[in-house]
Every structure is written in C-alpha cells, then in structure tokens.
Design brief:
Layout (H helix, E strand, L loop, with lengths): L3 H8 L1 E4 L5 E4 L2 E4 L5 H10 L9 E4 L16 H17 L2 E3 L9 H7 L8 E4 L13 E4 L2 H10 L1 E4 L3 E8 L8 H12 L7 E6 L1 H4 L3 H9 L8 E3 L4 H7 L8 H11 L12 E6 L6 E3 L7 E3 L13 H14 L14 E4 L1 H4 L2 H11 L9 E4 L4 H9 L2 H7 L25 E4 L14 E4 L2 H10 L5 H5 L3
Parallel strand pairs: 3-4, 3-6, 4-5, 6-7, 9-10, 9-12, 10-11, 15-16, 15-17, 17-18
Antiparallel strand pairs: 1-2, 2-8, 13-14
Helix pairs in contact: 2-5, 6-8, 13-16
Length: 468
C-alpha cells in the first residue's frame, strides 16, 4: 500500500544510493532572475550545457516593476538581474517568459495556467513556494542555487526522501472563509515547525470541494509550516482545469495521461508518519498578528498574551513580535487602522482572488487613508480581469490595478511598505522587514484585504459580504 507521495517519488528514482539519498529525476525546472545567475555561471565555468533545455522554463517576476513595464527598469540592481536572465536564457537555449512577454508572470502562476504543471510529475525551482504546484498531485519543492545548477546539468537531483504527513479537513466551510483562512488556521495550530522534515498530503471532503486555485493557495503555504512541500490527489477538478491548456497533453496523449493520472491517489491503509484531522466548522476568517505565519488568530479574537503559552521561549517570542508589530497582548485586532493593502503574490494573485476582492470592493470607494496595490499574478490574469470588468470595479473604487509581478510580497522591486506602517497582505510571509525595512505585515485572505481597502481598518469581510 503506497501513499500518493510514494507513488510519484518511487516512479522518479533513477538510482537509489544505499544509506544515502536518491537520484531523483526532475520533469521540469522553473527558474527566475534571482536564483539562476550563479547556476548559469557555474555551467559556463565548467563548460557544461543545459542537459535538457526544453525542460527548463524561465520567467521574470521578483524584480519586475508593476507600473510602466514598457519603460526601462529604473532600479539598477533589478535591471541588471533581468538583463542577465535574458542573456543567460538566450545563450543556453531556455524559453523565457520575460518582461513584456504576453504570458509573463509569477513563476508559480504561469506554470499551472499554461498547462506546464501536470499530475504525477516532479518540479523544482530556486524558490521555496514551488510547493504550489503540488496542488495538481505532483511533487514540487524549492531548491538552492547549487541544486539549480545540478538539475540544469543532469535533469536529476540528489534528495533524501522526506517523511510523510497527512492533514485531513472535513466539513463545509462557513460563508466568507477561504482557502487562505484554512492554511493560516492549520499553521496556527501546527506552528511554523510542525511540518519540518515532512511532505504533506492534504485530504478530506473540504479539500476536494476546493477549486484548483484554492488548492494552490493551500499547497503554496506548506513551506510556512517547515514542510518540504504539499500535495493534493488529482481528481475531476484537476483534470478539467488542465485540459486544453497550452502545454497540456492533447487528444490521444491526453487520454493516455488521464488514465495514469487516475491512479494517483493514496491507497487504502497506506501508512503516514504523522496524521492530523481538522473540522471545517472550526475555521473562521484569519489574520496574523506577529512576525511568522504561525502567529495567526481568528479576526474576531484578541491578540494572545504570555499566559497563553507554556515555555519561556514562546513567551519571549510573543513579546519580541508584538514589540516589532507595536501591538498589545489581549488587544482586539479588529478595527486596527491600517494604511497599506496588498492583494497579489503567488499565494493569492490568481483570477479567483481578484474576483473575490472585486466582490467586496464593488460599489464602494477606497478609504482615504489606504494605499492599495492590486497586482495580478500574470499577464493572462491581467487580461482576464480586464475582460470580466474587475479592473473597472477597482478603478471606480479609486484603485488602479497594477501590472503583473511579485510586487510587495518581498520588496525586491519598487513596491515597498514604509517603515512602521501596517500592511494587510495576501502574500505568504510576515517576517520582520519582509515587505520593506521596518514594515509590519498582517497576512490575510483577499476578502479581508479588500475589506480593509474600503474601510481603512481591519474589518471582517463577512460583514461586508452580507451588504453586497
């Protein structure tokens, strides 16, 4: 009896090294401008070509500006990194979805939407949130720069097989509760170290009820539990999403692939090293209050106090985080004034996320104190938002939708939150300085972020949904 993870991993072992790692075959490698230059230089110095360039996909995303993308990039470091990516891809024969390409976008958004991400495959990228692609029933994880070079040179990777965890979620989610709330709730329960050493399979009827975009949000943040990655068994929702996409199998090849994909599930009685179960009814709209993604609470709850923790380390961690965030123990988070909102990133920059934001913003105006960045995750998402009138809804509210990119997720571009300011962000990390030096990040769903955009303070989006 095998788990889904076992089936995919075992099928990709090129060689098993006794008492050592496996030589794992990698179906596709995604690269971007930040972690690839050193890998290309390594190949160049050793005079090694990319072994299978057609299995490497490049995009520009971290350093791209989100306004005036037709103009030269102003920031010198960003411009150099983007130019270097273009040069490297041309020299080594790698397909590049660069700035200005009609299908450019965030690396973990363009893979699925172009049909590059498929069930049963292995995917790597020099980016921790590669776990996103696991939503399709694949093994996907982030790697370091030297490993990027290894995959370029061999299409293989030395990897120790992780332990296996299953997280079951069953029941119907409450109105207004999203996939982002689900994963923030799980991380708040298991902590940022709860998944360390594991690959997580998400299962249960709650997970099966989610769209592919919602599943991607769940898997995307597996890494925030310390996990190596996350995956979800493919089903009819997966197959319907994949079919007819640009690089997905066609005609007879699709039928052949589908036959294989339908074998990708965990066998009855397969054994996991660890297992958890949660009830959907216990999950509410979530928000973080501290400086790691595990410091999350229901938006209606009070910020914890040292009395809620057992160890001195936990108590001191709370004090340090609240000091940075300028928040108080036992203080309500609701109605806290916030001046910045970011809706986007590889976690929540897909078309469904923009639709959710628009459902809250429609017919309302942006609060006077708010600077709002709504950033589509790709050119295709941007195009779809324009077609559906979402861009106009935002514009009517006083918010101009920006152009695709990682944007304010990690402040490697012009979209930086000023020091001391709060930002309700749909991204994946709230570390100190993540969105700019001294910036204070509160992670939340697109619905909650949109509610803040129109009220200027932390607001439960459920209250606004009932008004629309």
């Amino acid at each position: 009896m095998k788990t889904l993870f076992d089936k995919i991993w075992d099928a990709h072992i090129v060689k098993n090294i006794p008492n050592g790692p496996d030589v794992l075959y990698i179906d596709k490698q995604f690269i971007h401008e930040v972690t690839s230059p050193q890998a290309f230089d390594g190949l160049r110095k050793r005079k090694i070509p990319i072994f299978r360039p057609e299995q490497t996909i490049a995009t520009a995303d971290h350093n791209t500006p989100t306004i005036d993308q037709h103009l030269p990039v102003k920031d010198e470091l960003s411009r150099k990194q983007l130019d270097k990516l273009t040069e490297n891809c041309e020299e080594f024969g790698v397909e590049l979805y660069g700035l200005g390409h009609p299908q450019n976008g965030v690396v973990h958004i363009i893979g699925p939407e172009l049909g590059i991400t498929l069930p049963g495959n292995t995917y790597v990228c020099g980016d921790s949130h590669t776990a996103t692609h696991g939503a399709f029933g694949s093994i996907a994880f982030g790697i370091g720069t030297s490993q990027v070079e290894m995959v370029m040179a061999t299409q293989c990777l030395l990897q120790n097989k992780p332990k296996k965890m299953r997280i079951n979620i069953n029941g119907k989610l409450k109105a207004g509760v999203s996939a982002k709330d689900v994963i923030l709730y799980i991380i708040s329960k298991l902590t940022t170290g709860g998944g360390t050493g594991y690959f997580i399979e998400y299962a249960g009827d709650t997970i099966r009820s989610l769209s592919m975009e919602e599943r991607m949000t769940i898997c995307n943040m597996s890494i925030e539990m310390g996990a190596r990655g996350g995956l979800i068994a493919p089903d009819e929702t997966t197959f319907k999403y994949v079919k007819d996409r640009k690089f997905a199998p066609k005609d007879k090849n699709y039928d052949k692939s589908l036959k294989y994909w339908k074998t990708l599930y965990t066998d009855d009685n397969a054994v996991f090293d660890k297992e958890y179960s949660f009830d959907a009814v216990d999950i509410d709209v979530m928000i973080t209050y501290g400086t790691n993604p595990g410091m999350g609470i229901k938006v209606t709850e009070l910020i914890p106090s040292t009395d809620d923790f057992d160890t001195e380390s936990e108590k001191n961690g709370l004090k340090k985080s609240l000091n940075y965030m300028d928040l108080q123990q036992n203080e309500p988070i609701m109605n806290k004034v916030v001046n910045y909102v970011f809706i986007g990133s590889c976690t929540n920059g897909r078309i469904e996320d923009l639709r959710t934001a628009a459902s809250i913003i429609k017919g309302r105006k942006k609060a006077d104190n708010i600077t709002a960045w709504i950033v589509p995750g790709s050119k295709l998402v941007e195009e779809q938002a324009n077609k559906e009138g979402l861009t106009k809804i935002f514009a009517d509210a006083g918010i101009k939708m920006r152009q695709p990119g990682c944007s304010a997720c990690l402040a490697m571009n012009d979209d930086k939150v000023p020091s001391g300011e709060y930002c309700v962000s749909t991204s994946n990390r709230n570390f100190e300085g993540r969105q700019g030096p001294g910036a204070r990040t509160l992670l939340a769903s697109p619905a909650l972020a949109a509610a803040v955009a129109v009220t200027g303070k932390i607001t439960n989006p459920v209250d606004l949904l009932s008004d629309n």
